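ok trying again, last paste got cut off:
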Amino acid sequence: MSLSVDIAHTFGDFSLQVTFQAEGGITALFGRSGAGKTSVINAVAGLLRPDQGRITLSGETLFDGDTQTFLPSAKRRLGYVFQDARLFPHLSVRDNLTFGSRYAPPTAPGPSLEDVLSLLGLRDLLDRAPGRLSGGEKQRVALGRALLSKPRMLLMDEPLASLDAPRKQEILPYLERLRDGPLGLPILYVSHAVDEVARLADTLVLLGNGRVQAQGPLYEVMADPAAVPLLGVREAGAVIEAEVIQHAADGLSRLRISGGDLLLPGVQADPGARVRLRVLAQDVMLSVKRPDGLSAVNILPVKIETVHQGEGPGAAIALRAGQDRLLARVTRRAVAELQLAPGMGCFAIIKATSVAPGSIGR
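nice, full thing came through this time. structure:
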């Protein structure tokens, strides 16, 4: 399932001009408020008719400005999950879920009610009214309702934005199961939260001022120093995949990446499982010599790929650890004093406690 978007639209003094491809898995549209994210997803949904351009889904034209083609949203077979759950308050969870199946084509492939109950853990909620659900439970029901409409693609617009941190951590594993499960449903996911994108996305599209500023595989875009201003200095960091090796009695777990082993706390996955880690650039220190006598337990040999010096006092440095990429944020003074340059070998130092359990996903 391939989505192709190439559109232009003007809202007063704001112009949107966006081109990207979504080939499968979760494609995240990330940007700060006002970047144009919701306008893009609404154009895909058929809730906004762009001034110009073209949108296709698996070869079918949803919109074409040149031929004046505009397929109504009801005929696009797209599931939409909004920031607020928008459940019917007078219906039970069961009836809210089955409402979605009323609009599913009889012969269309898709999950059964039983599939959705198992995937999203909704079985114990079936007889409840929406007013008796937590925010996270409401969003799971809204997601289940969208899935039961048997869409070709799922659109999710800031689905976790209204949830507090504990409720967000509650629902993220369900979204990971949806991404990795047998349904194989492509998802276009809008968010302004880097932690969500880092845990969920396969492909990342960075929006700013109505334009695509960067796009590509999540692991590459997140580790690109040029993306730091778009992601935010305090939020920027690389995402890497690791294998869980063992859990120690002191609460630390050993994880293996291609560049070496890491010791981290709060890892819930079983040995042998693969997880993704988000390592913030501000939590990576560099040393030109292997340090001794540190409390930090993670020291990886790395090679500098690029040094990106901004206008302020900081510099973003792209690092290669085996086949994985890391990102470090240091001062421009440190770059000068340590003579950090592309091709140079050094050591990355990462405190075990700097990688929060909430930033470790499947």
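cool. The chain has a mean pLDDT of 93. Residues 165-180 form the longest helix (16 residues).
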